[in-house]
Amino acid sequence: YAARGAVEFPLFGLPWMLEGDYRSFRYPHISAGTGLPGDPGLVTVIGGFGQTLVPSFTAKDTDLDGRLGLKVADPRIYIGVGYLHRDENYGYPKQNGFGFGAEKLPDLNQPFSVYGSVYYYPSVTANYTFPAGTPGGLVGTTGKFTDRFLKYQIGVSILLTGVHDPFGVFLDGGYLGDSIRGKTLSPSDASHNGAYLGLGLKF
Description:
By secondary structure, the chain is mainly β.
């Protein structure tokens, strides 16, 4: 699932945009339940201190970021900064971090428009307290859980109504994803990607 919205506005004589972007990915974690080498249910624990068996379940990864951009070219091309929040349903701590990127907003005064964005968050972090069973005398201590996060999207908008009106409905489709690279304590790299299709409103 995904949802996003953006508004353009003038401030201090300059053209700005404010945007929010939400994404939720669900996928199956499959476990054979044996705990033997080769069982896909074996996962590396946070910090890389061995592996543990996790029963089958539906994993959910969610991220939400807010962006503030300054227009640098027409049509509607911005550079900006962002703040990203991430959380999952399998025991990882909630992470946050600042980043930067570039964006082309859709031109919703045109029947057909291409848009896209790419944002890089170099340090998305959380505090992680080591649980019982962690080796090396780390139980109860806190460390930084940190990833690098690249978030991207490309799409098209096709106006269904309101080409010449302030209000309209458009068909929205494209491809989005991310690439996650571990820095500290993160047990593995990861990525999400997929095509999407939905409806949008212009005001």
